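Work Package 3 (structural annotation) set out to generate three-dimensional models for the target panel prioritized at the project kickoff. During this period the team completed the workflow that converts sequence records into discrete structure tokens, so that structures can be stored uniformly alongside our sequence database. As a representative example, we reproduce one entry of 103 residues exactly as it appears in the project archive.
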Amino acid sequence: MELKLDTDKFDELQALFIREITDKVRIKLEEAGLKGLEMEEIAASVAYSIASTIDDTSDIEVDGVEVHPYLTFRDAEDRLIHSGEKSYTYEFVRGALKKLFDV
């Protein structure tokens, strides 16, 4: 497996990734009967929480084992796009919320 450093492509992909996650959260909240501002606020809270977990800014420890995710995106069968550092999907949540909720 080849690792390709491409920060521009990585930024594009992580923005799309967190937007899709945020949209899935929104859909599930709608299915649960939430609407309006309450749904938007909960979706934002959940999206930011998920993003901080993906970005390894939340402490993750299970049964004494520390977990440190490192996000990559596959762009070919044998190639992964990465940024050379931890992801920063958290920075794209606001933009995702704006697109989904006109915030």
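Helices lie at 7-31, 36-54, 90-101.
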